[in-house]
Amino acid sequence: MKLKRSSRLIDMTGYLLQHPHQIVSLSYFSDRYASAKSSISEDLGIVKDNFESQGIGRLETIAGASGGVKYIPFMKRDDAEAFLRLLSEQLSQSDRLLPGGYLYMTDILGQPSYINEIGRMIASVYSNHSIDVVMTMETKGIPLAFAAASQLNVPVIIVRRSIKVTEGSTVSINYVSGSSKRIQTMVLPRRSLTPGSRVLIIDDFMKAGGTMKGMANLLKEFDAEVAGMAVLVETKSEEPKLVDNYLSLLKLSMTEQEEQFIIEQGNYFQYYEC
Amino acid sequence: MKLKRSSRLIDMTGYLLQHPHQIVSLSYFSDRYASAKSSISEDLGIVKDNFESQGIGRLETIAGASGGVKYIPFMKRDDAEAFLRLLSEQLSQSDRLLPGGYLYMTDILGQPSYINEIGRMIASVYSNHSIDVVMTMETKGIPLAFAAASQLNVPVIIVRRSIKVTEGSTVSINYVSGSSKRIQTMVLPRRSLTPGSRVLIIDDFMKAGGTMKGMANLLKEFDAEVAGMAVLVETKSEEPKLVDNYLSLLKLSMTEQEEQFIIEQGNYFQYYEC
């Protein structure tokens, strides 16, 4: 069915937003809308200008026979800053402080709208880092991992704390939690990673970084590679960290007696490139 | 900045897709695009026709002073059937069979594109059931729960198997797993649910339904209500189930010796209304 330009623009926008980081050929759209490639090209020009001016993302043009366009989700710096301010405010409520220097974030981590924005922020930084897989440790990092992976169009693998019958054969390692010094176990299904994969590790909270380091070590068992590490909140107190080169959206500082805390911006904008 | 119709349509589409189940007033769009409400009304008419003909969802018009439009994600029956066929094929690969009558689904459950489609299918059924919260049990149901909740614009609460320091004060119950007959524990943060909430329970896999029943019982402790139950895969063998009125996308049947299995369509279309 031949569609008018207005219809094509609406459908194209929907299609591109739902297929990030995928090359869509001009022929695909040309067939889908029974329209000439020249019209499709013009449409894409309009979509591109709007995505960029409205801060939805970028539209890359790939030339050649297998060419087409690729939508790269990307959050504008202003939007990222505004969102981090909102998140800081939410997390600064005084009744969030829990014993042991933890912060109650369960409600925030349960809001898909926040989670999707956090995912978009992380995906913006790693959009041109050739990520193959996003990895996280159960439980609270899972929504963040999926939100980022969804924008990067890559699968997620979830590290478990113990062996599960539903995972088939597994590879496990022991690691020492950086803050509690306890020995813990990490398990990953044997068939979950192919050698050489470039892995983005994501978690919700990082104290000394023991879990992050454990995940990085687990990757070695699969001959896979750390392509990046990102956390929502890191704590300021426990330093130096056991890992380097991690991105953090927010930083939590605690008073000596763990009675008061401050939430600041993390190192996000050190990694952010326009 | 005054925008042209083509730009408005692109931005509107993006905005609506990212704000499902939210009333957006005409004034909001009128201010956003510095355009007359009459033009915005026409734009929305075009968007509505296209969303409906392309199977992206519905656009409801809310009349009156606080009126506007609401985007309701909805999957067309043809698309839902095609997706279920694809999923069945993927899950029918013979090397997925695990000891104990389980199916290896970890890879499928790690693909955001599948997860988002499953979420859209579940959200389509419950789109007019006044859902307040989606609930799931850690670990594997979490991505599905977030995908559905994201489309329904409601928060997710995650039931844990043990008490965590990061959750604050908690409510826990014991329950008997329907298939293994083991006594297990479920924990939920005390501040996670308000009385009277209508809860959609989502999980990845259901054998006898003990976990589902446990979650329903846990809701009673919060004076909350089961508004629906949905699983990706139910097993055919263990019947009758401990719960009624659950929706399933797929059904798994196993031979006596658990050497072969068949994946069929679940009861999804009994719940689906056009």
Q: How would you summarize the topology of this molecule?
A:
The structure is a homodimer of 274-residue chains.
Chain A (H helix, E strand, L loop, with lengths): L4 H14 L4 E3 H7 L4 H18 L2 E6 L5 E6 L3 H15 L5 E2 L3 E2 L8 H14 L7 E5 L4 H11 L3 E4 L10 E7 L6 E7 L8 E9 L3 H12 L3 E11 L10 E9 L6 E5 L2 H4 L3
Helix pairs in contact in A: 1-3, 2-3, 5-6
Structural class based on helices, strands and sheet pairing of chain A: alpha/beta
How many helix segments of chain A?
8
User: What coarse outline of chain A follows from CA principal-axis ratios?
Assistant: globular
Give unreliable regions of chain A as ranges: none
Q: Can you tell me the CATH architecture of the largest domain in chain A?
A: 3-Layer(aba) Sandwich
Question: Would you state the CATH class of the largest domain in chain A?
Answer: Alpha Beta
Largest sheet of chain A: 6 strands, mixed
Structural features, described:
Two copies of one chain form a homodimer. With 274 residues, chain A is of the alpha/beta class. Chain A has two domains: 5-73, Winged helix-like DNA-binding domain superfamily/Winged helix DNA-binding domain (Arc Repressor Mutant, subunit A); 77-271, 3-Layer(aba) Sandwich (Rossmann fold), CATH 3.40.50.2020. Chain A contains eight helices and 13 strands. The longest helix of chain A has 18 residues, at 37-54. The radius of gyration of chain A is 21 Å and the shape is globular. The two termini of chain A are 39 Å apart. The model of chain A has no long low-confidence stretch (mean pLDDT 93). Chains A and B meet through helix 1, helix 3, strand 5, helix 5 and helix 6 of A and helix 1, helix 3, strand 5, helix 5 and helix 6 of B.
